[in-house]
Every structure is written in structure tokens, then in C-alpha cells.
Amino acid sequence: MRIFDPHIHMTSRTTDDYQAMAAAGIRALVEPAFWLGQPRTSVGSFVDYFDGLLGWEPFRAAGFGVRHHCALALNPKEANDPRCREVLDVLDRYLAKDRVVAVGEVGYDSMTPQEDEVFAIQLDKARRHDLPVLVHTPHRDKRAGTLRSLDVVRESGLPPERVLLDHLNELTVAPVLEAGCWAGFSIYPDTKMDERRMVAVLREHGTERILVNSAADWGRSDPLKTVRTAEAMLAAGFDDKDVDRVLWRNPVEFYGQSGRLVLDEEPDPVAESFLGSSVRRGEVGE
Amino acid sequence: MTAPISVHDLEAAFSVGAPDRAREWLACARRQVARDRGELQMLFPVAARACGRAPLPLSDGWSTDDAARVLVLAAMAWPDLDELRGLYDHGDADEKRAVLLALDFIEIGDGGLAIVEDALRTNDTRLITASLGRHGASRLTPAAYRQAVLKCVFCGIPLAAVSGLDDRADAELAQMLEDFVRERSVAGRAVPDDVRSILARFP
After folding, report:
1. How many distinct structural domains can be found in chain B?
2. For residue B178, is it within any domain?
3. Which domain holds residue B134?
4. B42 interaction partners in chain A (CB closer than 8 Å)
5. Is the N or the C terminus of chain A less surrounded, counting Cβ atoms within 10 Å?
């Protein structure tokens, strides 16, 4: 079984997680830029974060044979903070980099006018950089937020197949698929979706344009939820081809639209450590 | 690493090894930065996608995108060092490496030293290796040069990649390496062979 986690925040995870993920068949992932849990107070904080997503984190992943790509953006929550907003001025420079396979996470948190504006600006950047977009749908007022996101996507003129709306559930999946966008589901221990409900969604809506992710981060979450969903699919009568479609070929097809997904070569057998920190904590060059 | 010595060598290796589309990209990139050097910011990150990442012939350790990036930089004059520093600071690891490699092929006096020192503070073996070309190795203070060599040994970087050892290795470096060998031996761990050749020079 080969698995591609299309949404996971590895900077918040440990090397134990990488090891368990690799052992379970997770060979590639996309890490979207998001809120750190603690509000940022300056653009510099974003720049260091983006540098990490393009430097240290792919290096750490490669050490476990996992291909790391990222999506970059100003997240919806911090779109409301004027101290963070200037990151939009440096974003273009980062969106040109190798390994950046989408603009994201963009979208709504509380559906404010500032979020409207930043969402539209970033959809325009995606168009100019020829990148797909990962849209976060809000935790609260999800149905309204999803429909409004679809309206904004429509107004942007972006082809719907280049847009992924994420964190969907049984109530929001239909309009997303009808609009021609990709539908993402985050499988969580308690909240969002679980494996059993995910299997039911796949039964009802099929496997086309559907992505399953763990969205694992610093909160209560599980980086192996993609694998658990694959197992639940098999137990429910889906075959290996269906599992490969949802958990490998679909994410490859969606992010492959960037032209920057590199999966053919094996990840580098680690140059032992990176930028002043060693994964092994001790010496390098063993 | 058998690094190309001159821009001419690098051009030759590139024209032997690079596909047509890479040669076209390089020619076009040089024209664009000659017209407006601001274009470099957006050209630099796309070099690998445009030229490929295949190993470059005649230059052990270089890739086609390394050469493409360095050849663009080498075609430009660098009166403003902040611009080069910005390219390094805002680069991903591959771009940073290319700026370090380029230091041997552009005219900036001692201007690359701060970048070299930054790279030596990292633990990324690709950056450390690239920082110890002729530009970096000849300008580091004796103490910094010794620490750099020791760090290479520590990180498993072959000393063949380090410029200037014939001239700059000294008794103090040999002492540091001897302590390193003793520490490794006590721990029952392997010692790289290339350390011994320096020790032999300062018995």
C-alpha cells in the first residue's frame, strides 16, 4: 500500500511519527502553511516558517524516505491581523520555489471582510503562479463558509479542478463536487470526520476528486489516519485499486497540476543533519 | 569534489551535459538579467525545473541546475553585495548552495565571507561543502578555517572537497584532529582515512 497524505503539518510532529508513517506506507505528503497555535506578530515569523518548510522539514522527511512538498499562504485566521498581512508582499518570492505545489491554506475562519480580501488576493496569486489552491473550510458555520468559498472560487475564474476544498463532511461534500472542485476530508480521532463516516461518503460519492488526509498538527490528531482509512475501505469491500486511487493517485493528480511534484526518484539517504540541528540530537556524520 | 576551476570550464561542462532546453533557458535568463537584474529573483528558483537536476559531467558533485544558476550569476556584475545576500537568504537549500558555489566565479573581493560563515553554522552537509570552495577557504581566519575542517570531518564530508588544505593545514589543526581521532577511538568508532594524511604531515 502506498499512501500520500495531502495535508499534514509535520513541523508539529516528531521523528517517531515520521518513522511510523514510513513504516505504514506513507511515502509522500504535502504540508500546508497554517496557524501555529500561537499568533505570529510579524512578517519575519512567516519568513522563517516558510524557510523551514522549504529547508529543514523536507530534509527531516527525506531521512525517513518520505517526500515532502508544501503549500504556502497567509492563513485565514491571521489574514485578520494587520501585522501579518504584509506577508502577502513576500509570498510571490516563495510561490516560485521548487517543492511549492499549491497556494494554501487559504479561505475563511470567521468570514470577515479582511478574510474576503486576502482570500481573493491569494486566488489571484495562484492563477499568476499557475498553482492549485488548498482552501480551508471554517470550523464554525461550515456549510455557509463552504458555499461562500465556492462563490469566491467561481468569481476568481480559476478552473474548479485546480481548487481543493478541505475539512469537508457529509453536509458539505455535494456542492463541492457539483462545482467541479476537489473534496478533501480530514480524519481525526474525535472531531471532523472518522474512518467509518469516510467510507460511507466514498460509497455515496465514489472515489473521483476525493482526497483523504490526517491534517495532523499540534492538536489531538493522528498522522496514521490516512492508513486507518485505507484499512477501513478494504474492510468495507473496496479493493486495492480504489485505495490506491483515493490515497495515492488522487493527491498526485491534484498537486501534479503544479508541475512541481517530484516523486520518481528515491528521497536522498540523508545528509546527516541540517542547518544547525541534527535529527539525531547528537553528532552528525555517523 | 572536482570543482570546475573557471567559468570557461563550467560553460564547457554545461554545454556537454545539458539538454537543449537547458541551454536555451540559460541564454534567455542571461538576456533577461542583462536587461533587468530584478528578474533574477524569479528566475533563480526555477532553474532546476527548467534545466533538470542531472549530474553535470566533468565536475563531480555538481548538478545541471547548480551550473545553470552559477552561470547566470557569473554573467552579472555584483557591485551591491546586499543583493547577493538577499538571493542567499531568500533561497531554498538548492539556491543557497548555488550562491555559495558561485562565489568562486564572481568578482566580489571579500564580499562572500559572511555567506560562507552562515553556511558553516548550519549542519547541512551540502551547504558546508559548497561554502569551502576557493573563495571561502582562502578568506576564513585561521581559527575559523580549522573549525570548518574539523566540522567537515565530524559531518562525514570528504576532505577532498575542502579547498586550501595544502597551504592552510597547520600543527594546531593536526592537534584538533588528533583529539578527534582519540575521542572516536575510545568510543570504538571509525575514523575517516583522510584525517590520517593531515596527521602524517604534522607528526
Report:
1. 1
2. yes
3. 111-203
4. 92-93, 96
5. C
